[in-house]
Design goal:
Largest sheet: 4 strands, antiparallel
Shape: globular
Oligomer: single chain
Distance between the termini: 11 Å
Number of strands: 9
Structural class: alpha+beta
Helix content: 40-55%
Radius of gyration: 22 Å
């Protein structure tokens, strides 16, 4: 089953992309990894690292070259994401929304005016975007959304409060979900708006104090009578914007799965190095069979996750599967990364529980991956429900023409 008919193509050759990966890996390993503690202590990404990321084009790697990006497809995206996951996740978070939900919504569904206005600045890093969906009663499932958008002449007026909004203290652009009407047979009644960070009536609270991911700033965002022109409505359609965002979220889930693989790889590497160098009773702990078993479980999990992410990205780019596979990849890889990090702390023993040790930071950082871009529970519902609908669709097609009791009607509840 194909979720969409179009196939994603890269604007970068395999040879050039290999150079991009090598440069990214070199920057991460030499310019960022040695400063992870600095990022954690200051709770911010240093300005020189931010400018280095911009110089490498990483604020727009998934944005087409027409608007100043690199134009990578998802197969290439996940290879970079595994590199990003190897270090402090705050670094990836800084440019993740530009390439992900904000950038992809604009690339695929924005009006020409919206794309020309925002995409070049997103790609250059001159603008930081935030994705403002989550509320107290609406997160992975936005059905409980209460932020409202009311038409006033040619404008829209937005009122509501968003929580846990990544990059909010830094954002120049907010991609805001708001309800325009109660849900009905024509759609959920939720539209998406482009709101500049300096819009009157928009305010950002103090940065949240989180369990981990220091340097990745999140905060509450309040909208009180925020007025935006009609041109701020994504796609120019009160229903198209929401569908666009939900579609683009699937791409983001594959990306997060790859980030989880990168973080798990780092936890595994730290574990192997520690086991090889640390002695108990004059014997390296890597010589103990139970430690070797933990290392083996880590290795197998990371290898399986990497293969799943690559297969998922290929299916997404071809148009074969843009719903079930990304959710399955995010579910497996984020849960796997949590298991690998837990084993890493165990292998390190007491030292793995100490601040300043890489595996302790990784353990806290990756816990969030099971929550945002849709919780593990939501991914299970998407995968399980999608599989049943797919089976019903196949059954309905096979039974076409068999009379009024045919189950073909179930096909109308497809994966889209």
């Amino acid at each position: 089953m194909r979720d969409r008919a179009d196939a994603a193509t890269s604007e970068v050759s395999a040879e050039d992309f290999a150079d991009i990966v090598a440069a990214t890996r070199g920057f991460i390993r030499t310019a960022v990894v040695p400063r992870e503690q600095e990022i954690a202590d200051a709770d911010e990404v240093p300005a020189d690292i931010r400018s280095g990321l911009a110089d490498m084009g990483l604020f727009g790697y998934a944005i087409p070259q027409r608007w100043g990006g690199l134009g990578l497809d998802l197969r290439q995206d996940v290879e970079l994401a595994m590199e990003f996951g190897y270090t402090s996740l705050a670094v990836r978070s800084l440019f993740g929304t530009n390439n992900g939900i904000a950038g992809q919504v604009l690339v695929n569904f924005g009006t020409d005016q919206q794309r020309d206005r925002w995409l070049p600045r997103l790609a250059s890093g001159g603008v930081i975007a935030s994705f403002a969906l989550t509320e107290d009663g609406a997160g992975s499932n936005p059905a409980g959304l209460t932020t409202r958008a009311v038409r006033d002449g040619d404008d829209w007026v937005l009122d509501g409060t968003k929580r846990f909004i990544t990059n909010a203290p830094l954002a120049d652009l907010f991609v805001v979900f708001a309800r325009t009407r109660p849900a009905d047979e024509s759609g959920p009644g939720i539209a998406v708006f482009l709101v500049p960070g300096d819009a009157p009536g928009l305010s950002v609270g103090p940065p949240d104090r989180k369990m981990g991911q220091e340097g990745a700033l999140t905060a509450e965002v309040a909208l009180q009578g925020v007025r935006v022109p009609g041109s701020a409505l994504v796609g120019g359609d009160v229903d198209a914007g929401y569908r666009a965002a939900m579609t683009s979220l699937a791409r983001g889930r594959a990306h997060i799965a790859a980030v989880a693989v990168g973080a798990a790889q780092r936890a595994h590497d730290e574990s192997v190095a520690h086991a090889a160098a640390t002695e108990q009773g004059g014997t390296p702990i890597g010589g103990f069979q139970l430690v070797q078993a933990m290392l083996a479980d880590q290795y197998a999990g990371v290898a399986a996750g990497r293969a799943l992410v690559r297969e998922t990205a290929a299916a997404y780019d071809s148009g074969e599967d843009r719903r079930i596979a990304p959710s399955a990849a995010k579910l497996y890889c984020t849960e796997m990364a949590g298991d690998v990090a837990d084993l890493a702390v165990q292998i390190h023993g007491g030292s793995g529980y100490m601040r300043g040790v890489a595996v302790e930071r990784i353990y806290r950082d990756i816990r969030l991956l099971r929550l945002y871009e849709g919780t593990s529970e939501i991914q299970r519902l998407i995968v399980g429900g999608g599989l049943i609908r797919r089976a019903n669709a196949v059954s309905g097609q096979a039974g076409a023409g068999r009379g009024p009791h045919s189950r073909g009607k179930d096909a109308h509840h497809g994966d889209a």
